[in-house]
Design brief:
The chain has 5 helices and no strands. Helix content is 71%, strand content 0%. The two termini are 21 Å apart.
Length: 102
């Protein structure tokens, strides 16, 4: 699956008010987009926090956002916590912020 496909899936989940699915797919899209662009290395099996460290190194101005979004990803996917509209929107926005820099 590509970053664009994950992003499309995240946007569809967001529109259907499935905020947990939107958040998870949006974080994966943000990470994969930067792998596709060669900004971070593809490390199979990397945790969300390991990916966040790599993204924060590549985008130091977004480090706080990246780590916050990785924490949300873990809480939602592994902690079984619900995601809010604002949280899902925030992670979708991270993809936008990282994607805007080439």
């Amino acid at each position: 699956m590509t970053a664009d496909e994950l992003r499309t899936r995240a946007e569809a989940a967001f529109a259907e008010e499935r905020y947990a699915d939107a958040l998870v797919d949006a974080y994966r899209a943000a990470a994969l987009r930067q792998i596709e662009r060669g900004r971070v290395d593809d490390v199979p099996g990397a945790t969300a926090h390991e990916v966040a460290v790599a993204l924060a190194d590549a985008f130091p101005e977004q480090a706080t956002d990246v780590h916050r979004c990785a924490g949300l990803f873990d809480l939602v996917l592994y902690g079984g916590r619900p995601a809010t509209l604002e949280q899902a929107r925030d992670v979708l926005g991270l993809d936008d912020r990282l994607g805007a820099r080439r």
